[in-house]
Amino acid sequence: MTPQEMRLLYDYNAWANHRSLDAASALSEEKFVQAMGSSFGSVRDTLAHLYGAEWIWLERFQGRSPSSLPRHDAIQEYG
Length: 79
Description:
- With 79 residues, this protein is mostly helical.
- The protein has one domain.
- The protein has 3 helices and no strands.
- The longest helix is centred in the N-terminal third of the chain and has 23 residues, at 3-25.
- The mean pLDDT is 88.
């Protein structure tokens, strides 16, 4: 993979994350935490998973190797 391809993927990831956050910010609190039967439960839980995945990759790029994702309750509550 070339540096240019890496930048393209990074830019796409940032674009997609911003779209996800913009869409989630328009939801009411009830919809934000509503169980949806998806892999991660709710929009909130899906965003928490995305945050954890981004964090773990950042840790790996910095030479650290965390054994788990950040605790779910360590992420600031909605509102």
